[in-house]
Write a structure and sequence with these properties.
about 240 residues; 10 helices; about 0% strand; mainly alpha
């Protein structure tokens, strides 16, 4: 079925909110964009479209932050990311879209509520082990659900105590790698059609404006309160998706 004007407007509003967050923090667009768009569009259309947008967003950020990329940290994430993506693509190809939508809803409810729970920090982590666990899980979740790898990778980058600039640069680089591999995988499954093309034509300019706005908002963002509001919105969206 064709995409209606109100569905495009709804998705544009979600992209504006999600990529403003991405521009301000370095990740997190999928946390808002995917649940909101999945309320009005098929899940197997939303996932490849948002992934393609992620490539464009990550390209710009990675280029700007290229001098701050920690190549040692990035290299430990490459193989786990590739492995998790391959497994995710195999599952995405065979699992029912409605089942994926309900599982996705439950996942983001749990993720949203986790923002209100204080988790202990890892002590003296083995960088290789943490990279293997977080890289593979992040790639698997991102491939099945279209995004949300950022929080998994953040566990690893926090565990090895990267500074703010190195964290942002390395995060951008690994998300770019993940998005490129996923775009190739979704393309091989035939998921990029005329509707995905229409969405990209409409939403990419909105994304560009939102990224610029997020960059300007970075210095004035009250991150703690903002993340709690996002967490509540996530939990509410997840409940709706579970019963969609």
């Amino acid at each position: 079925m064709p995409i209606s004007a109100w569905e495009l407007a709804w998705c544009a509003a979600a992209v504006l909110a999600g990529y403003t967050l991405r521009g301000a923090t370095g990740f997190g667009a999928g946390l808002i964009v995917i649940p909101a768009c999945a309320l009005v569009l098929p899940f197997n259309l939303v996932v490849p479209t948002v992934t393609a947008m992620g490539v464009l967003a990550s390209l710009g950020q990675t280029w700007r932050e290229r001098r701050h990329i920690d190549r040692s940290a990035l290299s430990r994430l490459v193989l786990p990311t590739l492995g998790g993506t391959v497994i995710g693509l195999a599952l995405f190809a065979v699992l029912d879209a409605r089942l994926l939508l309900k599982v996705f809803g439950a996942f983001i409810v749990a993720y949203g509520l986790s923002a209100f729970v204080s988790l202990p920090r890892l002590r003296r982590p083995s960088p290789g082990a943490v990279a293997l666990a977080t890289g593979s899980l992040g790639a698997l979740v991102a491939t099945l659900f279209g995004g949300m790898a950022g929080p998994f990778y953040a566990v690893y980058l926090n565990a090895i105590d990267l500074g703010k600039s190195a964290f942002r640069g390395t995060m951008s680089a690994v998300l770019l790698l993940l998005a490129l591999v996923r775009v190739a995988g979704y393309g091989s499954l035939g998921l990029f059609d005329a509707r995905a093309g229409m969405l990209l034509v409409v939403l990419v300019p909105v994304m560009a404006v939102a990224m610029v706005a997020g960059e300007h908002a970075h210095r004035h963002l009250s991150e703690g309160k903002f993340r709690r509001v996002v967490a509540l919105l996530l939990a509410a969206s997840g409940i709706v998706l579970m019963f969609k």
